Amino acid sequence: MPLVMSIRSRFRAGAVTAALALAFLPAGQASAADVNNAKNAGFESGLSNWTCSAGSGTTVTSPVHGGTTALKATPAGQDNARCAQTVAVKPNSTYTLSAWVQGGYTYLGVTGTGTTDVSTWTPDSAAWKQLSTTFTTGAATTSVTVYTHGWYGQAAYYADDVSVYGPDGGGGTDPSPTIPGAPAGLAVSGTTSSSVSLAWNTVSGATGYNVYRDGTKVTAVTGTSATVTGLTASTSYSFQVTATNAAGESPKSAAVTGTTNTPTGPGPALPKHAVTGYWQNFNNGATVQKLADVQSQYDIIAVAFADATSTPGAVTFNLDSAGLGGYTVDQFKADVRAKQAAGKKVIVSVGGERGTVAVNDAASATNFANSVHSLMQTYGFDGVDIDLENGLNATYMTQALRSLSSKAGSSLIITMAPQTIDMQSTSNSYFQTALNIKDILTVVNMQYYNSGSMLGCDGKVYSQGSVDFLTALACIQLEGGLAPSQVGLGLPASPSGAGSGYVSPTVVNNALDCLAKGTNCGSFKPSRTYPDLRGAMTWSTNWDAAAGNAWSNAVGPHVHGLP
What we know:
By secondary structure, the protein is α+β, with helices and mostly antiparallel strands. It has three domains: 51-165, Jelly Rolls (Sandwich), CATH 2.60.120.260; 187-260, Immunoglobulins (Immunoglobulin-like); 274-561, Alpha-Beta Barrel (TIM Barrel), CATH 3.20.20. It is built from nine helices and 30 strands. The longest helix is centred in the first third of the chain and has 22 residues, at 2-23. The protein is globular. The model is unreliable at 1-32 and 263-267 (pLDDT under 50).
């Protein structure tokens, strides 16, 4: 889109200018007396020593790179969330400026050097990334201003472990780190036939962790989880973890044993083009159905919904037997098996308009994965649908779904049903999550309803209720990194199925043709076709039944007949 291109061009220009400036700086050598001259470099004392513009900065406990807190700064309006600190330095000296960053577009720079002020930057990042540059002070320079900032209209950024490393400027430094304590809470969070996933508690003052298998170091990570791969099936291994920082390495944690799975073959594949329908586990005026009543055109049946529990991140499933005319759990389980015997996939959906499930840290991610896997074992579900309409943390939902995948294996079905606003940019959390799990993701069925006007991939504004709205918005996902087989069109089955955005099955089919074959387009026509487009989704099988199955009878055969 033009806005994105403009932003990136301005970033590139700044980066090139900084790079050219650095090329002419005199080389500096670190000495034994070099220190980190930044104060409160890890934000362990809140925003002490730092000043953030327009109240844009705060400290958070997650995500963090090292220690227990990090900076979170949020651009708003004409403010780019600049957080700065004045640092004492020595004249005629060379320093290395660095910081670990995550989230939206992030700048790191320095002014007042007395020579050439420099900066560096990174586009949005879902994981911690280190920014680093160097600068030289002038003959009369005794202090500089180091800063971080984001970019206008972009997502919040996080920063941690800032360093201005070089000769002691005399302004004082943070206390030297001490060797951290041994990690506690080490546990096996998932297994496959060739890997074991581990998770443990954060250690105060740690900047990284080493993972040991049977006494031998096998990997180093900065977070509190790791997956050890390349293991032999049906084999037990002993694991320990240590915490590290600049002062050294902690003693090893207590050992845990992880046993790899016995290998199994993949489950039956979905058809190339599939129809997804939500089945209502409640009575809201639509036709009440047992699972056995779901129309045969639906290839993936999403059971709506799982319920949150008092344990953060964990979910459960409560069949509404009373609301569904005495439908029993045993009948439900038998119907799941019967649908699967007919080649269908039955998954449990988490969220919905009123869903309150929150996965915002490592513990809740583990709880989510464990609880969903337990539901799969109890009811026979083939996977999970993510329909969290009240916010999503890309880092920890990614962690949760990868943990679930390690438990469930290659036949796991993962679908997502974001709202239109969630998929306008790859920097949005939903889009980030989809890209993070692209190798295990089945399909994203965005909800093209209950939406305001949105931008298409051509930068033009489109209103819901037209072929162009469907095709121009789908184009963002298709050109933004998802495979065509991971993109579906989500629409209500009848006017009663949504507050707004209902279109006739003919409009749905025309949009499918436009994307898959380049025919029946509106004013927007994609630059290429996507014959592997997965298909369509509807809310709900119940509203479809209430309307005489008009949606599935028209859209189902059309989807299955795509090239």
